[in-house]
């Protein structure tokens, strides 16, 4: 049977997005491979925690700024279709099999078309003609969620302990596994637009990724770095893809 081209058996992480010089981008890739670790991006860069999650109640859920977490991002894009993604990030990447990353808790984000219509009207008083988009519906939910949290906190000891524990467990699960994995995007932007996040097909590992060199499925870099790479990693036996 023919292989499906719109997903990949591997997930790829690109490095050096904020660096202009390719030499500096390669240095980042080299450091990662030498250290055998992809560090989780943390809200507080000085934090030594392997995972942290900040909740910003004054942020907009639809603005992708209500949560800030430490995680490693990957894209689920076949190697032959990475050009658009590399134009936005860099031409230096490292890929692992999904099987390897699934054991580390990898999961895809849940994309929400912000300017799209909600499938169902959320709650009173929102009715026909009032909820104009998913952005409006989800932000209304976020405000109610924040009010619920605030009321429980203000009531303090008046809240039965079992109810507080139940709420804390439910809230913790929703924050870590659901709400912080929502990613709003504009479905009307063209594929190359930097804010068309849907094209990234993003997966996240909510902690640092430690690996052995043999766990690396693929390394992506411009061909002019082939000799330095082979010199730096003579024992690497995985695939090398040259990004022109």
Task: Kindly summarize this structure in a few lines.
This protein is an alpha+beta fold and 244 residues long.
Task: Please explain how this structure is put together.
The chain has 244 residues and is of the alpha+beta class. 30% of the residues lie in helices and 19% in strands. The chain has 6 helices and 13 strands. The strands form 5 sheets. The protein has a 4-stranded mixed beta sheet with strand order 1-6-12-13. It has a 3-stranded antiparallel beta sheet with strand order 5-10-7, with no helix packed on it. Strands 2-11 form a two-stranded antiparallel sheet. Strand 12, helix 6 (226-232) and strand 13 form a beta-alpha-beta unit. The chain is globular, with a radius of gyration of 21 Å.
Shape descriptor:
globular
Distance between the termini: 30 Å
Q: Enumerate the spans where pLDDT stays under 50 for 5 or more consecutive residues.
A: none
Order of helices and strands: EHEEEEHEHEEHHEEEEHE
Which structural class do the helices and strands define? alpha+beta
Measured as a percent range, the helix fraction is 25-40%
Overall number of strands: 13
Spatial extent as radius of gyration: 21 Å
How many distinct helices? 6
Q: How would you sum up the major sheet?
A: 4 strands, mixed
What share of the residues does DSSP label as strand, in percent?
15-25%
Strand order across the largest sheet:
1-6-12-13
Task: State mean pLDDT (0 to 100 scale).
Answer: 89
Q: Helices, strands, pairings?
A:
Blueprint: E1 10-14, H1 22-35, E2 37-38, E3 53-55, E4 67-69, E5 72-75, H2 83-88, E6 93-97, H3 98-102, E7 107-108, E8 110-113, H4 134-155, H5 161-178, E9 182-185, E10 202-205, E11 209-210, E12 218-221, H6 226-232, E13 239-242
Parallel strand pairs: 8-9, 12-13
Antiparallel strand pairs: 1-6, 2-11, 3-4, 5-10, 6-12, 7-10
């Amino acid at each position: 049977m023919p292989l499906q081209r719109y997903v990949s058996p591997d997930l790829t992480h690109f490095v050096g997005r904020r660096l202009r010089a390719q030499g500096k981008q390669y240095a980042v890739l080299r450091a990662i491979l030498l250290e055998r670790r992809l560090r989780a991006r943390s809200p507080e860069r000085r934090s030594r925690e392997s995972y942290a999650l900040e909740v910003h109640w004054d942020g907009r859920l639809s603005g992708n700024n209500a949560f800030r977490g430490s995680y490693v991002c990957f894209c689920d894009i076949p190697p032959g279709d990475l050009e658009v993604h590399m134009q936005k990030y860099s031409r230096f990447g490292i890929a692992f099999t999904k099987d390897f990353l699934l054991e580390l808790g990898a999961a895809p984000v849940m994309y929400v078309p912000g300017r799209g219509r909600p499938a169902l009207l959320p709650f009173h008083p929102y009715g026909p003609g009032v909820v104009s988009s998913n952005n409006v519906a989800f932000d209304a939910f976020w405000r109610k969620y924040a009010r619920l949290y605030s009321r429980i906190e203000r009531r303090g000891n008046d809240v039965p302990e079992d109810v507080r524990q139940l709420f804390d467990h439910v809230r913790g699960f929703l924050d870590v596994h659901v709400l912080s994995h929502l990613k709003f995007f504009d479905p009307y932007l063209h594929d190359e637009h930097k804010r068309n996040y849907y094209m990234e097909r993003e997966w996240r590992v909510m902690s640092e990724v430690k690996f052995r060199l043999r766990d690396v499925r693929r390394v992506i870099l411009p061909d002019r770095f082939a000799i330095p790479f082979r010199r730096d990693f003579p024992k690497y036996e995985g695939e090398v893809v040259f990004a022109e």
